[in-house]
Design a protein that fits this description.
The protein is 41% helix and 14% strand. Strand 1 and strand 2 (46-49) form a beta hairpin. The mean pLDDT is 83. Helix 1 packs across helix 2 (16-31). A two-stranded antiparallel ribbon has the order 1-2. It has helices at 7-14, 16-31; strands spanning 40-43, 46-49.
Length: 58
Amino acid sequence: MKAPMSELARRILADRELSKKLMIAIQSERRNPDDVEGRTIVVDGKRLTLTRATAIYK
């Protein structure tokens, strides 16, 4: 069974550049949770800020 995924999440993961920015934001949040600018990405003119990344599972 697969968890439902929003169209925005599907689009971010399908776009190589956006997915790379998302991974950089996750790493930034893990290093310094207070750095709001480092964990923010822009998609379709909207600023999306990662609120919390607790762990990365491979």
